Every structure is written in C-alpha cells, then in structure tokens.
Amino acid sequence: MQYFIPAWYQENDWRENEQVWYRARTVTEFDDTVKQVQLFFRRKVAPLKILLLSFSPNFRHFLHRQGVYHVPYWSCFDAMQAISGRAMHTFSFHDLSWPEDVEFVYSPFAVLVMRNHQKYAEISFAEDGNMFRVDLFQNGLLTASNHYDDRGFVSLQTAYENGAPVFERYFDEQGVWKFARYLKDGHVVINPERAFFLNGAERVPYAKGRYQNLGEVIAEVLSCFLKDTDPSDVFAIAMHPLHSQVLNAVLKDRHKILSFFERRMEEHALTEAEQELLDSAGCIVADKESTAEAVKKHLHASTPIRVITPYEARVEFGISQHLHVQNILAACDHLSEEQFNQMIVLLAGYILNRNHRARVCLFTRSSKYEEKISLLKRAQNALSLAGLDPEMAGSEEGVSENSVSDDPFARVFSVAQCVDEMHVSRTLREQRAVCDLSPLPDQFLEISAMSMGIPQITRQKTEYIEDGKNGKILKDVLELPEAADYYLGSVEHFNEAQIASYELGSRFTAPELEKAWKEVIEIDQHSGTAAGRK
Asked: What is the pTM of this model?
C-alpha cells in the first residue's frame, strides 16, 4: 500500500484552507501531493490511501475539485472526533434552530441573520456553494464561530471574548464535544465523558485527559492506526515543518519517500525534525532540478534523489494564432526593480519600433488585491524613466482584440493575476510567447507553455526548454526584442517551436511519470536506509 501524507494546512495550523467563495484564493490548492494522488489513482500505479492529518470538514469538496473524489482516505480528526460517516449530505441553514423572531437578509456575499435590528449571525458559503461557517454576534461583537462539516453537522466551534478567539471545541456527529483546544498556549483537554477515539470500528481510550498540543493527540491516534498497516507499506510524505516532528516519531522504522516542493521550501528553513526524516528516508523526490540541488546540501547519507515533475505534459492547443493581436506573457514575480524596468522598456521598444500588433500581459502569481494596479504603476514608472509614454500601461484592462490600433501610443500592457493553475492555463491559451526572465522560472508556467506548444524566452536553462528549439535562452537581456521577434515575426519559427515543444513534452507524460514513480517505490523498498536498516 502506498500512503500519501499531504501538507494541506492553513497558515501552519492543523486545518484546511477552505474559504468564502467571493474571495480570491491567497494560495493555490495544487501541490505535489495533489498531482501524485491524481497520477496513482488514474493510472493505477499502486494501491493508495491518503493519510489526512489536518482538520478538514470540507474534505470531500476538496477531493471533488481535484477530480479524485473516490480516492480512499483516513482522516486523523475523524478518528479523534469519533466520526464514522463518509457521505456528504445536503444541508441548509434553514435546517438550523433559529429564534422565531429572526429575519434573513440576503446579500450578494453572505446571508445575514437580523434580530431586533441587530446582526445576530452571518452565514458564509464556500466556492462550491456549501454552507461552511456561521458566525454569531452579540451587541455587534463576534461571540462564536461554528464550522460545519459537509456531511451535515457542526464539527467545530470557536469561542470569542471581546472579539478575540479563546478556545475551540470539536464535536462528534451527535453534537457532543470530544475535545477542546485552548488557544493561549495550545493545550488540549479531552471530554472525560467521551474520552475515546476510533480505530476502525474500535473505540480506543485516550491515554491522557490533557495534552500539550494537537500534535501530541495526532501522534497518539496516528500511531494506533499504523499498528494495522503492513511493514512493507510505503509512506510518501510532503515535507512540511508542521507535521515533521509527529511523523519523525511515529514512522521511525517505516519505508519513507520524502517529497520536496519548491513552493514549500521557499517558506521555511529545514527544521531539526525534517533533518532527521531526511537522514532516515529511503528515497527523495524533488519537483525540479533546483529543488534537488538545494536538498543535496542537507544530505548526510547517500540517499537517492529523483526529480519527478508533479505536473504532467499534455498536448493542448491555444488560440493565439487566431487572434489579431500577438500576446507576450511576461512573468514579473522574483524580478528586481531594475530587471522589471529593463524588461518593460525592451518590450515597449519592440512594440513601438517593430511590431504594433504585439501586446504584453504582465503575469503574476500574487494574490494581493492591489497587485494589478501596482504592476501597471510600476510599468508606467519604467516607461516614464525611459522617456516613453506611460499611457502604454494606462489601463488595467489592457486592450481588447477588436480595438487594436496602429497607434504606437495605444495601451499595450495588461495584467494577468493567476493564483491557481487553472487560471494560468486559461491565460496561456491566448499567448503567442512566454517570457520568464526570473532566476527560477515558474515550473507550472513552463510545463503548460510546453504542453500548448508556446515558445519560451528565459535566462535560465531548465529541463523544459531546449535552446533554439522550443525557446531561447538569453545570454544577455538585451537580446529579448530579437528573441520575441523571432517567434512573433515568423509563423515558420513559431511552428518549429510548437513541434519541438510537443516532442520535449513526451518526456513528461503520465506514462513516463508512472514509470519514474514505480522506480522510486522499488528503490525505497530495497534501500539500506529504509526501515532502520542503516
């Protein structure tokens, strides 16, 4: 059995990232574990199960969004809360018990519950339309927040004093509290009248009535679950500091594959527990070559490292050749102000002097509300400093296909704010070329461009670009206008890059990724460092 232990946590806490539907996502839901589970499930690579360590009352919605609703899973919090049901239930706020004198006010964002002309409650909905939270108020102050499980019951209540959270109570399906976490120091108290958790159908008594933190409870419940697993089972762990200490303790002598994902590595330094996991792993999987190189610096043993992209390449077709404009997607994240300004000026000069049909779409993965306006202001500033018309970046909306003008002062810069991968793919469909001059190019952007046959211009050599074939690797940034014109000015060169992209993409198809993962599993099972055989 292949067990996947994900790092699906909210701001380093043991809970999911579910949020209200009308807010743009601050982080993408896609990561290495999502893609690995999709690959194993769809390709039937090996029997698998997800070991979920986070509090996730809307987990079934998450699985549905990722297209893996039927993947088997074990939820640690379900076991801790003694929840045995699996099926979702249709559940409305009308099913709750409300005072008879309340009035429901429907706003575009939430349902407000009014009583005596004051806000009594606010009902929030997730992006799938499911009610997931009800906030309760008294005299204008938040007093409690109830989080609802998609299986039809309240799963968590957070109590507030003077508007600040004080403690959390976790409930079973019958509405009886199982344990409480006090937020000042994080300690956990077990309900003495319901002091058990579930291991399958068996009720197992908690070892203590009070724990220092949730991690201690999770370790106890997970250890009990692991007693029923086979010694040959393999655990693929998404490296994250929150669960490293727990997993290092409970998986001491088990087969472990550690999965390193660049986005998570950027957020923290390697902890002591992560280092111990690293030293005892049978194999390591990195999402790209640069990640593998960073991990190697921390290795104290000759643990095998394999680079397996979490994103598979597929042959897709964009619509850029059917548009009158020629869009250049220019990645802006991780560029210094000097690099950003130079890129803006070079592309503006190319449009003014050589290709009036070209347009520049400034690409960012940032979720900040003001990011679009900020990027356009930065572009205006760069243009002004170079003596060019700042109105070229004067509109947040850019210019539509039907309003193309030969006027060299037309507004040609727009912004694409793509937090998640689905938005990236939609944006790429209209692009004629991708320009990513950052020190570490966006991996998903590279693979998606390769899948759609879009030529790429970078300054870094990566496994997704072959210089002179499906893109250009610039020795000097001043070569950018020539590289852009090479693909925008010649259909022949664009078609050659498209064919080369599809040929290169054949190395990263699902069958190739499946083959790589089978090799990793075999390495781990026969590794001398696995299962304590050092």
From this structure: 0.86
